[in-house]
TrEMBL record:
Binding annotation for substrate: 51-53, 64, 93-94, 119-121, 124, 174
Protein name listed in UniProt: Phosphoheptose isomerase
Co-factor: note: Binds 1 zinc ion per subunit.
One GO location term (cellular component): cytoplasm
EC code: 5.3.1.28
Pathway assigned to this chain's UniProt record: Carbohydrate biosynthesis; D-glycero-D-manno-heptose 7-phosphate biosynthesis; D-glycero-alpha-D-manno-heptose 7-phosphate and D-glycero-beta-D-manno-heptose 7-phosphate from sedoheptulose 7-phosphate: step 1/1
Catalytic activity: 2 D-sedoheptulose 7-phosphate = D-glycero-alpha-D-manno-heptose 7-phosphate + D-glycero-beta-D-manno-heptose 7-phosphate
Length: 196
């Protein structure tokens, strides 16, 4: 296959997946927005975490909440748990990489907070342990997964929101995840500031 055809296939596959997710994930994403707005307007905060590309997504999302999305508004309380290299290296070195997020959820999480847990496989152990810590601290979980949801899909409660992208390729799942996170930012702004 030539390179242009190969790239063209990425567009075709992504469009098909986006159309499918439009039908299946719009309603659960609205539930995620409600959970985020309820937390943020009741003195809660948003914790976000993930590995690799999902780490980038978590910090991207936190930046849009603390800074701004499309409109000026008050800063919103959000922290990405994958950004502090001193915490990551100290906890990773002293206790193991599996604990790098749960240690921070245990340090920072309060009842009423929300953990946005991002894992395309649903099987990253440090994200799983962060969800366990969130459950033990009455922190609601919004999980962004793919590949059937993995172990994370099995451990979520009915208070949590599961946004599982029905695809097996990490790159496609990540592309939907960033759309979902942007849709959440837009939904939060619409709830707080009114429709554009
Ligand atoms: O961005 C990519 C691949 O597109 C990678 O960096 C990817 O995020 C990493 O392999 C992660 O460790 C995968 O973890 P997860 O999504 O399965 O939790
Ligand atoms: Zn990637």
């Amino acid at each position: 296959m030539d390179l242009i055809a190969r790239i063209s296939n990425h567009f075709r596959d992504a469009v098909a997946l986006f159309e499918h997710c439009q039908d299946t994930l719009s309603a659960p994403t609205a539930a995620a927005v409600d959970a985020l707005v309820f937390s943020l307007t009741n003195n809660g905060k948003i914790l976000a975490c993930g590995n690799g590309g999902s780490a980038a997504d978590a910090q991207h999302f936190a930046a849009e909440l603390v800074g701004r999305f499309e409109r000026e508004r008050l800063p919103l309380a959000a922290i990405a748990l994958n950004t502090d290299t001193s915490i990551l290296t100290a906890v990773g070195n002293d206790f193991g990489y599996d604990r790098v997020f749960s240690q921070q959820v245990n340090a920072l999480g309060q009842p009423g907070d929300v953990l946005v847990a991002i894992s395309t496989s649903g099987n990253s152990v440090n994200v799983i342990e962060a969800i366990e810590a969130a459950h033990s601290r009455e922190v609601r979980v919004i999980a962004l997964t793919g590949k059937g949801g993995g172990k994370i899909g099995q451990m979520l409660t009915e208070d949590d929101v599961h946004l599982c992208v029905p695809h097996d390729r990490t790159l496609r799942i990540q592309e939907v995840h960033i759309l979902l996170l942007h849709a959440m930012c837009d939904g939060i702004d619409a709830q707080l500031l009114g429709d554009l």
